[in-house]
Write a structure and sequence with these properties.
Anaerobic Ribonucleotide-triphosphate Reductase Large Chain, two-stranded antiparallel sheet, about 20% strand, about 450 residues, alpha/beta, 15 helices
Length: about 450
């Protein structure tokens, strides 16, 4: 489908009046050819491969910004899960690979690089264990590297040994970055049903089924969506609300489709997916919580919030999927507490609780995202939180995730300040009755009956 001049003009209006931006252009890069028995040689191969393949990524993105007038907030890279190439190397500490990724990101001038990752939903290999053990030091000694671990899937169930291991790892990562408000944990996410083509951090990886290099684009536009919904009277029916969301999502996604086509053509790599997700930022007017309140919820977290979020998420997908032939990634609405000014306000006012957030994750794109909890929270409690969220993903055949930050030295009422896109996280209370048995039982939560699709 051709992009018309009228669409371009309408998009420029959304940019100038409603804060539309393209949230990220992310180049996925395969590192399969970089595996080596020597850590030094492997690091050299990884650095050369990334910097050579993405050499012009920022330059092309900047050119597209100037030519089309659509701001591109972030330029990023995702790579093959590092545990997969590290299997060739016997070194116990894989931190040098994270440092190499960070150096490559700095050379390219990008904001984040994802892929210090492992997929352990059914079992853990030696390289997986070495990577997970290296995460605290890796995230403490780098600025731009993001880490993710998939511990569950609908087809495999939940690896409960990995859940407990990741809970311990989250605490250790927070402790390793205490002097920076535990920001290491803000770059670490635990997944169920992880997707292999997401352009969004911290969970972006380059999947094994992808081409050598692809361009994936993440659109956003909470401000545009909010402005569109404000045009409706409060007497408008929910059917009218859904139609307006669909119409607006189509327009936002067409902008992403245009930029995706242009970026991939100019960089000479395959066009990947367009991710439809509404991704908030700490900036005023760029909030998913605000959209829910315009739909009619008194304050995000109050009764009706899950219903409003389900409507938003479904309508965004229905509208966006018609605007691109290759929709993928996560695609829906994100609810990261620290990155959404409306979520922060609702938390501080007591309207939004951890339990309500968990209910909301059953209908949104990802899960419990960018949530700070008291620093004395036990690893068993965090393991229980992860297990609950993984169960929602596994049973409902959807992607869910946990990005929780133990606020070492802080308690409820305090605030962690990460700055930039990661925002500000109020420390939320967490139910302390997890017990000490479930998290240590280990083994595997069996795959549910709905996993039998063949």
């Amino acid at each position: 489908m051709a992009i018309t001049p009228e669409e371009v003009a309408e998009t420029l209006s959304m940019v100038s009046q409603q804060n539309l931006d393209l949230r990220t252009i992310t180049m996925g890069i395969s590192l399969g050819a970089c595996a080596d028995e020597s850590m030094d040689r492997m690091c050299t191969k990884v650095y050369d491969r990334i910097t050579r393949t993405a050499e012009h990524l920022v330059e092309v993105a900047d050119d597209l910004e100037r030519e089309y007038g659509i701001p591109i907030a972030n330029k990023r890279v995702s790579v093959t899960p590092i545990a997969q190439i590290a299997a060739a190397c016997p070194d116990t500490d894989l931190t040098p690979l994270a440092v190499t990724l960070d150096r490559a990101a700095e050379t390219l001038g990008i904001d984040f690089l994802g892929g210090f990752s492992a997929l352990v939903q059914k079992g853990m290999g030696n390289a997986d264990r070495r990577l997970i053990a290296s995460i605290p030091a890796a995230l403490a000694t780098t600025e731009r590297v993001c880490s993710s671990v998939n511990v569950a899937s609908t087809r495999a169930g939940i690896n409960m040994d990995a859940v407990m291991l990741m809970a311990d790892t989250i605490v250790k990562t927070a402790e390793a970055t205490t002097e920076r408000d535990c920001c290491g944990a803000a770059k670490l996410v635990v997944f169920a049903n992880m997707v292999e083509d997401s352009p969004f951090m911290a969970g972006a990886i380059h999947g094994s089924g992808e081409a050598d290099a692809v361009i994936n684009v993440g659109v956003s536009g909470p401000g545009v969506m909010a402005a569109a919904l404000r045009q409706l009277p409060q007497t408008a029916s929910l059917m009218d609300v859904a139609e307006k969301i669909k119409e607006t999502a189509f327009k936002i996604t067409r902008a992403g489709e245009l930029m995706s086509r242009q970026a991939s053509a100019r960089l000479g790599v395959e066009k990947g997916i367009v991710d439809l997700s509404l991704a908030p930022t700490p900036a005023a007017g760029d909030s998913v919580a605000e959209i829910l309140e315009i739909i009619g919820v008194g304050r995000t977290g109050g009764p009706g919030t899950t219903c409003a979020l389900a409507l938003l998420n479904d309508a965004v997908k229905k509208g966006g999927v018609m605007a691109s032939s290759s929709v993928g990634g996560l695609s829906g609405a994100f609810i990261p507490v620290s990155e959404d000014a409306g979520m922060i306000r609702a938390t501080e006012e007591g309207a939004l609780t951890l339990e309500k957030l968990e209910a909301m994750t059953s209908v949104c794109s990802v899960g419990l995202d960018m949530i700070a909890v008291p620093g004395d929270t036990t690893a068993e409690t965090i393991a229980g939180l992860i297990a609950d969220e993984m169960a929602i993903g596994v049973i409902n055949t959807k992607t869910t995730a946990v990005r929780v930050i133990p606020a070492i030295g802080h308690d409820v009422g305090d605030t962690l300040v990460f700055g930039g896109l990661l925002g500000t996280a109020p420390v939320m209370p967490i139910n302390q009755f997890a017990g000490s048995v479930l998290a240590h039982r280990g083994g595997r939560f069996p795959a549910p009956l709905n996993s039998l699709k063949n």
